[in-house]
Write a structure and sequence with these properties.
Structural class: alpha+beta
Number of helices: 3
Strand content: 35-45%
Shape: elongated
Strand order of the largest sheet: 5-4-3-2-1-8
Number of domains: 1
Largest sheet: 6 strands, antiparallel
Radius of gyration: 29 Å
Order of helices and strands: HEEEEHEEEEHEE
């Protein structure tokens, strides 16, 4: 009695089919994995781009809502800016600063009541990450040169409030955002 059928698959044929399915499976998994990495990188870049634009607009709005309040003043250098603004009906000390070690921009807004109480002050919050460099410069009329120019630093006690602020942010990927913000109270 013979129990073998001529219509069955041999072991070699079965192994060839399994090997083909394995190759196809590995290539599909590899393609999917690479696609997910590309999508994640694009989504992260898009998020940094959006956060940068939104927070530059926020800085613009707050500078335009700035007030001439001598107790806070207006101070700045290449990597930070501090000024008085009217936020939600309260006078606040608003500051933006770039921390190169963390490649991030931080924002702090402390109301006058929080300053007087010296407690419950909100710490600076990271608002944008992935920043390669940040630069603030201050627009004013230079009487010695009889022309308008930008300065790398600003001191309220010496010069009052600048006419405008230029904020330049460069992302890690090299994309540059630049905005010149006029300050109405300085006009």
């Amino acid at each position: 009695m013979r129990f073998f059928s001529k219509n069955a698959f041999t072991l070699v044929e079965t192994m060839v089919v399994v090997a083909l399915f394995a190759v196809i499976g590995v290539s599909l998994a590899s393609s999917f994995s690479m696609g997910m990495r590309v999508w994640k990188r694009a989504a992260t870049t898009n998020l940094v781009y959006r956060k940068t634009v939104i927070n530059l607009e926020r800085l613009s709005r707050e500078l335009r809502q700035g007030i001439n309040y001598p107790d806070i003043g207006f101070f700045g250098d290449k990597e930070s800016i501090e000024f008085a603004a009217l936020l939600k009906g309260e006078i606040a000390n608003v500051s933006y600063s770039y921390v190169p070690q963390e490649k991030a921009v931080f924002r702090s807004a402390v109301t006058r009541q929080e300053m007087l109480a010296l407690e419950n002050q909100t710490p600076a919050r990271r608002i944008i990450s992935g920043i390669g460099s940040a630069d603030f410069s201050y627009y004013y009329f230079d009487a010695n040169l009889s022309q308008y120019t930008f300065s790398e630093s600003w001191n309220y006690t010496k010069s009052g409030i600048p006419l405008a602020v230029k904020a330049t942010l460069v992302l890690d990927d090299g994309e540059t955002f630049e905005k010149i913000i006029q300050i109405p109270i300085a006009q």
